[in-house]
Write a structure and sequence with these properties.
Length: about 600
């Protein structure tokens, strides 16, 4: 991403997302992660450290296809769900974004997280830090010994931008730029290759170059951008099946002075690129980079399928060649019969030299000697028997080899027939048909059967619970065992139901149904539910018991935890006396 485009996107995301809570973190596959925020417009923030196309911007939720969570996505989801974004900053003159999150109240005492996004090409990375800057987790391993992140070690920011520290973001930076870098063109060349190439294309004098840079710096300071996507053809006309060159799609934070033109093979300029303006830097980034990613993904998948077809054709061609040679040897097995007969007929005249016996040829009137291979450790009669066995084996093998050769030839023709469609595929439907054809030939797995065809999960037994009614008419459910606590919490309760448990004591999970999705539990219902949780706990005989309460969506269970044990991502506490509600109890 261009330096100034990233600046624009970061400012836009900061305006939209500060003081907003993360609902969850999703994986989009290929080192791409989506932070889903609890805003009215359901904002999503894309953090992509995909090496060939790292990017960062807001993303339309309607265009998102989630993938299975990877290790790092699971860590982010567990660590950041319920957290509130309190700062989002781009480091000046560097492609590094830092976000700070205020964590909900947690049992481990953690109160803040930092998330550093480094959009540094193939070294792109996403790193989780504690408030002191110590690495907790990261997405990619790095080969650099100096900057390779390691859990428990201090974070090392990328070097190389020390000369830019004193350069402010705004037109007032011009004197500093002239002093440190020699001029506008030199500075822009180190910061924004896209805008530097554009400036060089108009061949400006130094005054014009400084004026252009001052305008860019003013846009950065005032956040006044006019993003444009330049493409070889209109964006909607660029579809799968074509492979855009590096600069066939450009995302610029501002209109370019010299928009690019299409060039022929001789380098002559042709028609200008299509310019598509956008009202938002994130929308421009999503349109341009999303298109590039889609086309690259299609090309990579097409190349993969073409390679599969090519390798199978090569394998079958090699197999066919070997079978042809084997068939020729089998059909020539009559030679072994002739040698065996000669050896038996000339036993008395045989002259043995090492591994060869010379005997008269019975089929030659002159009796010219022929050489017969033998095993010198065996009698000549035994060597003759071995020759006859080889003759019989060859004769028996001819039909089998012919069948194998015919089968190999048939499969080779079938795979060769896929070579053309693989090369000509230009749409996802073409690859789907190709994949199905390969699946029918036994190489690629077919698509998963529809859900209706999958075996259904056996129905679980309903949780055995105690049921009460609060003074406000809300249903209170109380678990009876560790297993049934888990079922009540994670199978029966809805995310917006309220959840309670006696602090630091074994006891029942208590769930208060919340069909109206209230933000807070009414005071009377809260106290009654808390008293019930205290009563059904190890603190029943105590005068006062502390009870944690939260909403079910903030209750998590890590893999390997015993039955009934959970982790709270956010909670509050209340002190109550253990007692049962005055309403009747119903055991279910």
């Amino acid at each position: 991403m261009d330096q100034f485009l990233l600046h624009a996107v970061a400012a836009e995301a900061s305006r939209r997302l500060l003081e907003q809570e993360i609902l969850r973190v999703s994986s989009l596959g290929q080192s791409r992660y989506l932070l889903r925020f609890a805003t009215a417009s359901k904002d999503n923030l894309l953090l992509s450290v995909r090496p060939d196309l790292p990017r960062f911007h807001l993303l339309d939720a309607r265009r998102v296809t989630e993938g299975p969570p990877d290790r790092f996505a699971a860590h982010l989801d567990q660590d950041l769900t319920g957290a509130v974004l309190i700062a989002l900053e781009k480091r000046p003159w560097d492609r590094v974004i830092e976000m700070r999150f205020r964590l909900p109240r947690r049992e481990d005492g953690a109160v803040e997280r930092r998330l550093v996004l480094e959009l540094l090409g193939r070294s792109a990375n996403l790193i989780v830090l504690d408030p002191r800057g110590v690495v907790l987790a990261y997405c990619h391993e790095l080969k650099s010994e100096y900057r390779a992140p390691a859990p428990g070690a201090p974070y090392q920011p990328p070097p190389g931008r020390e000369a830019f520290v004193s350069v402010p973001v705004g037109p007032e930076a011009m004197p500093t730029i002239r002093e440190l870098f020699g001029g506008a063109r030199e500075f822009l060349g180190k910061i924004s290759p896209l805008l530097a190439r554009d400036l060089d294309a108009v061949r400006p004098d130094e005054a014009t170059a400084e004026s252009r840079l001052a305008a860019i710096l003013e846009a950065a300071r005032s956040d006044a951008w006019s993003p444009v996507v330049y493409s070889l053809r209109p964006l909607q006309e660029m579809t799968e099946g074509e492979w855009p060159a590096r600069n066939d799609v450009l995302v610029s934070p501002l209109p370019l002075l010299a928009p690019p033109h299409e060039h022929d093979s001789g380098g002559a300029a042709g028609r200008p690129f299509t310019a598509t303006p956008f009202d938002s830097p994130s929308r421009a980034a999503e349109a341009g980079f999303g298109l590039l990613e889609r086309l690259r993904d299609f090309k990579n998948l097409k190349d993969h399928y073409e390679a599969l077809v090519r390798r199978e054709i090569e394998r079958l061609s090699t197999l066919r060649g070997k079978l042809v040679e084997e068939l020729e040897r089998a059909r020539g097995s009559d030679t072994y019969r002739r040698l065996g007969e000669a050896l038996l007929a000339g036993l008395s005249d045989a002259r043995v030299q090492g591994e060869t016996a010379f005997v008269p040829d019975p089929y030659d009137e002159a009796g010219t000697p022929i050489a017969v291979p033998i095993d010198p450790a065996r009698p000549l009669q035994e060597s003759a028997r071995v020759l006859f066995e080889r003759y019989k084996k060859g004769k028996r093998g001819v039909p089998t080899i012919e069948k194998r050769l015919q089968a190999a030839h048939t499969r080779l023709v079938e795979w060769q027939a896929l070579s053309g469609p693989a090369a000509a595929a230009c749409a996802p439907a073409d690859l789907d048909r190709l994949r199905e054809a390969m699946a029918s030939l036994g190489l690629v797995h077919a698509k998963h059967p529809p859900k209706s065809a999958l075996s259904r999960r056996p129905k679980e037994k309903p949780a055995r619970v105690r049921r009460y009614v609060s003074p406000d008419g809300l249903t209170i459910l109380v678990g009876k065992s560790g297993e049934e606590n888990d079922t009540l919490t994670f199978r029966v309760a809805s995310p917006w139901d309220f959840w309670l448990h006696a602090a630091g004591r074994p006891g029942a999970h208590v769930v208060v149904r919340n069909p109206q999705r209230l933000k807070t539990l009414p005071e009377k219902s809260l106290r009654v539910a808390a008293e019930t949780a205290a009563y059904h706990s190890g603190g029943r005989q105590e005068a006062k018991v502390e009870v944690h309460f939260t909403q079910r969506k903030y209750v998590r269970k890590k893999k390997g935890m015993p039955s009934g044990q959970v982790l709270l991502r956010r909670f509050r506490s209340i002190q109550v006396a253990p007692r049962l509600p005055s309403s009747s109890v119903e055991d279910v």
